[in-house]
Specification:
Elements: H1 10-25, H2 28-47, H3 59-69, H4 80-93, H5 97-109, H6 112-136, H7 142-232, H8 236-264, H9 276-288, E1 292-298, H10 307-327, E2 332-339, E3 343-350, H11 367-377, E4 381-386, E5 392-399
Parallel strand pairs: 1-2
Antiparallel strand pairs: 2-3, 3-5, 4-5
Helix pairs in contact: 2-3, 3-4, 4-5, 4-6, 5-6, 5-7, 6-7, 7-8, 9-10, 10-11
């Protein structure tokens, strides 16, 4: 039998226990507990000698004490209410239990300077009330009564008010500590995000530099060699093929420069977002290379797609055509573009290959996986599957309103 262990240390459990007690006392349950406590503390004073000439009667002191204690319900928002009610109860019943709770609330829920002046005013009002009551039923000298009453008033008013101010200071200190801790966490998080952005920026610049220096260099050499081949070709077919290589190489260099610029300036917007014409040109290029490629579209119009959706559709068509040409030589390729009110769909389907793939068909194979992850981030999906006739199909669906 395994023993159940509390994951919190003893001091943390003690703090949590007292926190729960504090929440209970700070709720309405705590309000009624305070009301009951003050009323019970008032009973000895209001019940003793109820038939004194100055007393309004047996029932009045109890009713006044009970009604006065209800003012504690307002002690958080308006602590002045229980203070005034406490002074009234003191004048009618000579009991100051409610007044003590009221000045405590004044120190607890009001700023220190305000609470201090309020406590001083309460001392003098209390002094006047007590001297008036005692002077009517006592033969002692008025100055002796004032000295004794002043000393008692200072203790019974300034003590609770000071206790409330101490609790307020403690709570404010806790709130400030929590606020400082939150600021520290946010500052640490901000620094971590800045460090991550800096690392990402360095990685982007390194990739852009490598792409420009190495890939750009190789493509430029390819274009130069194709130009040389076109100039020295002895037959028209070779010259046409070489000129086609030059044209594609130049477009590849242009695309590479755009990618490098985007990597260096990630906030830069595309000056010419992908559209249907680019996909049409992509299919035309594949057809010009000798493949049987066709394009069908339904509702897929320029300018109606969000830039992110248009870019994604272009990349799916590009990846699907590249894979079909690479892995299925001689196969027929059909690119289908369709949209409705809520979604955009791109399908690239090829039939079974009529020849074995060449050595150039070997690759990393991560293009479709990357596109599937991108589709998921944009709220859609991408699925690649083999067909019963030996072909392959890439189907992507994306909502027109992509998540931000």
């Amino acid at each position: 039998m395994t023993e159940r262990r509390n994951p919190l240390p003893a001091d943390a459990r003690e703090y949590a226990r007292w926190s729960r007690v504090g929440r209970v006392l700070g709720s309405r349950v705590g309000d009624w507990i305070a009301i009951g406590l003050v009323f019970v503390l008032s009973l000895p004073r209001v019940l003793i000698r109820p038939d004194d000439p100055w007393s309004p009667g047996f029932n009045w002191p109890i009713a006044v004490a009970l009604l006065g204690t209800l003012s504690l319900l307002f002690r958080r928002r308006w602590p002045e209410v229980p203070v005034v009610a406490g002074l009234a109860v003191l004048a009618l019943t000579s009991d100051d239990a409610l007044l003590r709770f009221g000045v405590y609330a004044l120190g607890r829920y009001r700023p220190l300077r305000y609470a201090a002046w309020g406590a001083v005013c309460v001392v003098f009002v209390r002094l006047s009330i007590v001297v008036f009551i005692v002077d009517r039923f006592s033969n002692e000298a008025i100055w002796e009564l004032m000295v004794l009453t002043l000393r008692y008033s200072l203790m019974s008013v300034l003590g609770p008010a000071s206790a409330g101010a101490v609790v307020r200071t403690f709570r404010v200190g806790e709130l400030l500590s929590a606020f400082r801790a939150r600021l520290d966490r946010e500052d640490a998080l901000r620094k971590a995000e800045e460090a991550a952005e800096e690392r990402a920026e360095q990685a982007r610049r390194r990739i852009a530099r490598d792409a420009h220096d190495h890939v750009g260099h190789e493509v430029t050499l390819m274009v130069l060699q194709a130009n040389l081949l076109a100039a020295q070709a002895s037959d028209e077919a070779t010259r046409t093929a070489a000129e086609g290589l030059v044209d594609r190489g130049q477009r590849a260099i242009h695309e590479l420069h755009s990618i490098v610029k985007t990597l260096k300036e990630p906030e830069e917007r595309l000056t010419s977002p992908p559209d249907v014409r680019r996909i049409e040109r992509l299919v035309d290029d594949v057809r010009a290379s000798g493949a049987d490629a066709r394009l069908e579209r339904s509702g897929f119009e320029d300018g109606l797609l969000p830039p992110a959706v248009a870019e994604f559709c272009f990349r799916v068509a590009q990846e699907g055509l590249t894979n079909a040409v690479k892995h299925a030589p001689g196969a027929g390729i059909l690119v289908t573009l369709a949209t409705d009110d809520t979604t955009a769909r791109v399908t690239v389907r090829n039939s079974a290959p009529t020849a074995a793939p060449g050595a150039h068909a070997e690759g990393g194979g991560s293009g479709l996986q990357d596109l599937a992850e991108l589709a998921e981030r944009l709220g859609g999906e991408l699925v690649g599957r083999a067909l019963p006739d030996g072909g392959f199909e890439v189907r992507a669906t994306l909502p027109l309103a992509t998540p931000r």
